[in-house]
Design brief:
One of its GO terms (molecular function) is lipid binding. With 473 residues, the chain is of the alpha+beta class. It has helices spanning 2-13, 33-44, 177-211, 281-293, 314-318, 422-440; strands at 21-22, 27-32, 55-58, 92-97, 101-107, 111-125, 131-148, 154-172, 216-218, 223-229, 234-235, 239-250, 265-266, 274-280, 299-301, 333-339, 345-349, 352-366, 373-390, 394-411, 445-446, 459-463, 466-472. The longest helix has 35 residues, at 177-211.
Length: 473
């Protein structure tokens, strides 16, 4: 397993960051280094990672201060002189560990330079009696590689770690000057083995957050989206880039493959201290394709589904196209049967999102508990404006009718100019059909969850064949 990880790390190190073209139809996530720093800092707050470090560093029976050590009972300098008091020095324990200050630097072609600056509080019994309290400034310096785990998720791997001791302060107790250097050497020798595991634990928490980006997201009754890495992770000096491939599955578990854009998406550059996710047109097409396949875009509209100010009787129809009624009496109820037999098309361009739904509209006379009687059939195109709003987990879609175009397909009475019905039909569709669509679209477009970056307050930009969400770190 580790061989596979390191092989991927080696391959990744030879790659260069994306130059602005998203060649695949995937979701492109660019996570700013500030977000990585926040994730690391948050992993240290309130968790068990720092608590696990507290405990014994050394005692009189271990290490260079022990009975068999350099200064122990049989040691080189143990008999007589000032160093004889070392036998009275009891075990040092880490009683306090200040919340580390995190600093990091992204290393293009390698990974991350991660530094944790902290203060370690050591307590023990002094060689001259009484409580001995020391405070040591420590900088933990580590190099971390970015690659792909055996599960196919982004992973940070610790490659090297070292500690650099800063100022050592004696807060209480007595410690002869010659012993101070010995204690300093002991602490220097022991702390890497205690503090470098902190880095490994932190990376474990962050890797869990990274793995959440590649998960199965439900699409209600429509199916699900499974995110996976399309390419190896890339890194620049400001951000980590993940090209995430959305795999769409129907409710039955079948992979859905709708037509993809013919040209790559031109992704705009990312500003410093911002994170960015690009949502491709493909995801929009797929959601509407699933709605069409499931029959969710079809509807039968009667007078019960429209308000009183939207008439749906033969009397109202006669005022518009009397030749279409034949011998039907006035005052009889109508039913509109709308059927969508082709996948709607979504257009993302010119800072606007538009949905075009081709529909066959059947107008029938309707008698409750009776058999509807067809009057005529229309071929229509329903054009809707899409208002897009991001939340923490998905991109919400709310539709409003822009226009309706219809032409007569067939009539059981006389031919007529169908354009005279467009305003009336628009009122019906606006009142009954658009609200239904918005309920069905409540599933939204799922966003990958990377390092808990919240895109709820992101700036949304509509570009050619994609949506770009940008949030400040």
């Amino acid at each position: 397993m580790m061989l596979g990880v390191w092989s991927l790390l080696l391959l990744w190190g030879l790659m260069t960051p994306c130059q602005g073209l998203l060649e695949t139809v995937g979701t492109l996530a660019r996570i700013d280094k500030d977000e990585l720093g926040k994730a690391i800092q948050n992993s240290l707050v309130g968790g068990p990672i720092l608590q696990n470090v507290l405990g014994t560093v050394t005692s009189v029976n271990h290490g260079i201060l022990g009975s068999g050590g350099l200064l122990g009972g049989g040691g080189l300098l143990s008999n007589g002189g000032v160093f004889g008091v070392v036998g009275k020095l009891s075990g040092l324990k880490i009683e306090e560990l200040t919340l580390p200050k995190v600093s990091l630097r992204l290393l293009p072609g390698f990974g991350v330079q991660l530094n944790l600056h902290t203060k370690v509080g050591l307590h023990g019994s002094g060689p001259l009696g009484g409580l001995l309290q020391l405070e040591v400034e420590v900088n933990v310096s580590s190099r971390v590689g970015l690659g792909v785990s055996s599960r196919g998720t982004p992973i940070l791997v610790l490659k090297s770690c070292s500690t650099l001791l800063g100022h050592i302060s004696l807060l209480s107790g007595l410690l002869p000057a010659p012993l101070f250097g010995i204690v300093e050497q002991t602490v220097f020798k022991m702390l890497p083995g205690l503090l470098c595991p902190v880095v490994d634990s932190v990376l474990g928490v962050v890797n869990e957050l990274l793995s959440c980006a590649l998960s199965l997201v439900p699409l209600g009754a429509l199916g699900s989206v499974e995110f996976s890495l399309a390419t190896l992770p890339l890194i620049s000096n400001q951000y980590i880039e993940l090209d995430i491939n959305p795999i769409i599955k129907s409710a039955a578990g079948d992979i859905i493959d709708f037509p993809k854009p013919p040209a790559p998406v031109k992704v705009p550059p990312k500003e410093d201290h911002t994170s960015q996710v690009t949502v491709p047109l493909y995801l929009f097409n797929t959601v509407f394709g699933l709605l069409q396949t499931n029959g969710a875009l079809n509807i039968d509209i009667t007078s019960k589904q429209v308000p009183n100010n939207v008439p749906l009787t033969t009397t109202d129809l006669a005022a518009l196209v009397p030749e279409a009624l034949g011998k039907l009496p006035p005052g009889q109820q109508l039913m509109l049967s709308l059927r969508v037999k082709e996948v709607p098309s979504v257009i993302l361009q010119n800072k606007k999102a538009t949905v075009s739904i081709p529909a066959d509209i059947y107008v029938l006379s309707y008698v409750p508990k009776g058999t509807p009687e067809a009057l005529f059939e229309l071929n229509g195109v329903i054009t809707l404006n899409a208002q897009l709003t991001p939340s923490a987990t998905k991109l919400h879609i709310s539709l409003s009718l822009e226009r309706l175009n219809v032409k007569l397909a067939s009539s059981f009475a006389h031919a007529f100019d169908a354009s005279r019905l467009e305003e009336w039909l628009s009122d019906v569709i606006r009142a009954a059909y658009v609200p239904k669509l918005n309920v069905d679209l409540d599933v939204g477009i799922p966003l990958p969850k990377v390092l808990n970056v919240n895109f709820a307050n992101a700036v949304l930009e509509i570009i050619e064949n994609a949506i770009v969400l940008t949030v400040k770190s």
